[in-house]
Amino acid sequence: xxxxxxxxxxYVTIDTESDASSNTTPSTKKQLxxxxxxxxxxxxxxxxxxxIDENGYVMATLASNIEQECPTIGFIAHYDTTPDxxxxxxxxxxxxxxxxxxxxxxxxxNIILSPNYFKDLLQYKGQTLIxxxxxxxxxxDDKAGITEIVSAMEYLIQHPEIKHGKIRVGFTPDEEIxxxxxxxxxxxxxxxxxxxxxxxxxxxxxxxNFNAAGAxxxxxxxxxHPGYAKxxxxxxMLLASKFISKxxxxxxxxxxxxxxGFFHVVGISGSIEETTVELIIRDHSAKKFRKRKExxxxxxxxxxxxxxxxxxxxxxxxxxxxxxxxxxEKVEPVFHxxxxxxxxxxxxxxxxxxxPIRGGTDGCQLSYKGLPCPxxxxxxxxxxxxxxxxxxxxMMKATEVIVKIVEITAAKK
Length: 413
Ligand SMILES: [Zn+2]
Description:
This protein is an alpha+beta fold and 413 residues long. It has 2 domains: 292 residues, Aminopeptidase, CATH 3.40.630.10; 112 residues, 2-Layer Sandwich (Alpha-Beta Plaits). Helices cover 31% and strands 22% of the residues. The protein is built from 10 helices and 17 strands. It is globular, with a radius of gyration of 24 Å. It starts with a helix and ends with a helix.
């Protein structure tokens, strides 16, 4: 257990925060510190073909130890942490034999991780938890995933009696700013399929995510002196608010769950002359996703029809752009890749929790680039903030899941 804790801590104490405003890859230079350390570590444990490309993507191979043909599979994790919360100077705390009570993360600042609020904690009574000191995030997202992949490869090298085909490992930058898959060289990776180790609680197995689009809607107004405005002024801010009021009121993130999609207004800025509304559209169903996009265009059309005489031109300009798609479409035709992961968990006494992701993963983009890629738990909770924690037992289980997947894949005819 100490070995996996030490490995995890050696990763999270390196600041790898990504930055959406940067145009370089990786978005921040400091990510390369960990990337290069991983290269050295992968070589040291005995992996082959260890490479890092000019964009910081790390890849490595564990060669097959069997004669017969076997699919090549991969395991992927991201080494950046979110810019939403600081990842500098992470000081992990280790709570042994967790008693099910409050955990004081920071006495001075009175920051407490409590099962009264974070009920998931209670399922880890008696286990070893790694938490923050209340001033940073932890970075279990996704350094737990990296820890598990490296540990599983090390285990396989030390246990040649476990038969496996060719295994590939991939570590990516910039996942948290949505670019982890952008420059991932799927061809070079050369796998039949892969798994991202980037889910949360033990048992999670995900192969469905949202279809996603972003809309930018511009409202044109007409500014006239308010004293002489009757019948002349068009206040674009009021138009925008009217438009928003026509969106389905119950289809918003705070009122939906599971497979329910939504419209989500993420920004408004305006003046009388011009107002811009930004919103995102999410839906698991491809058909409903299309309908949602059409709805925005139809609504814009209706506004334009109504105002065309007075304004003499389009008053609403709606631009809708697709962002990513549901990987289900790419995974279902090769569904055995989900079944293998499910079987691996069951054989290890882990109850698979299969549920749709209300978001996207690197795996969904990779699936559309030709590498079907479901997502497996990495074990952490409360990502992207100071309450983030990970049970060491979950990381050990995830490591075992990787080994088991490899075994089952090799044994499958
Ligand atoms: Zn992640």
